[in-house]
Structure formats: structure tokens, C-alpha cells
Design brief:
- The radius of gyration is 22 Å and the shape is elongated.
- The protein has a domain of about 80 residues.
- The protein starts with a strand and ends in a 41-residue tail after the last strand.
- It has a five-stranded antiparallel β-sheet, with no helix packed on it. A two-stranded antiparallel ribbon has the order 3-4.
- It is mostly beta strands.
- The relative contact order is 0.25.
- The protein is about 0% helix and about 30% strand.
Length: about 120
């Protein structure tokens, strides 16, 4: 495996972080529009570092994968679903519901997701 620095001419996406998976695709012209064919998306590697000021991303690239993306490639990233989840993390939660209307309302359902992650 080798680390490759990818320079960009514009600012990086603010949500980019270490561990994100980088993909690329060569855009095509179709009906006067530039499009990315979903079947041509290629996994490139994993983000190990980035610099928002210099607009660069360092990616660990598996040499068995295809070569470096061509200059005109569309580069995208995906979050690691094991690390980035939308669930709350903690040991205790307290919720208070308030009705700010003058008339009564009916609460149909309240749900929560609980999973044990440590003992």
C-alpha cells in the first residue's frame, strides 16, 4: 500500500474526515450534461490525512486497485458506517415534552433506540 496526495483546485468538503473511503469516476457527457455513470465508480482508498488550507487529501491506496484517478475525474467519499452513526451515545437520557398550545393535544407514540455497548 502507498499513500497518495490528491490536490484539489477548490475547497474540500467540510465533512471530510480520516477513515472516509474515497471513490472516483470519469465523468461523461450525456444529453449536454456531465454525468457520472454509477457502474464506473471505482474505489480508490482510505483518507489518512487532509489539509483544508492547501486543498489536499492523503489517501492510502491499495496497489492492487486501479491507478491514480485521471485529472478530470469526479472524486467522492463515503463515511464508514461503523464509526459514523446517528444514534445517541451515553449512559443516561432525560426527555421532557411540553405542549405550548392552549388546547390539549394527543401524543400518539414515542420511541427510542437502546443498545448495550459496554458493561
Amino acid at each position: 500500500m502507498q499513500t497518495i496526495r490528491i490536490p484539489f483546485s477548490s475547497p474540500l468538503n467540510e465533512s471530510l474526515q480520516k477513515g472516509d473511503i474515497v471513490y472516483y469516476s470519469s465523468p461523461e457527457i450525456s444529453g449536454g450534461f456531465t454525468v457520472v455513470n454509477q457502474g464506473s465508480i471505482i474505489k480508490f482508498g482510505i483518507v489518512v490525512d487532509f489539509d483544508h488550507l492547501q486543498h489536499t487529501v492523503d489517501v492510502i491506496h491499495d496497489e492492487q486497485l486501479l491507478s491514480i484517478p485521471p485529472a478530470e475525474s469526479y472524486i467522492m467519499f463515503e463515511k464508514d458506517k461503523r464509526v459514523n452513526s446517528s444514534s445517541l451515545i451515553g449512559y443516561y437520557a432525560e426527555v421532557e415534552f411540553k405542549n405550548n398550545r392552549k388546547d390539549k393535544i394527543e401524543l400518539f407514540a414515542v420511541g427510542s433506540e437502546v443498545s448495550e455497548n459496554s458493561k
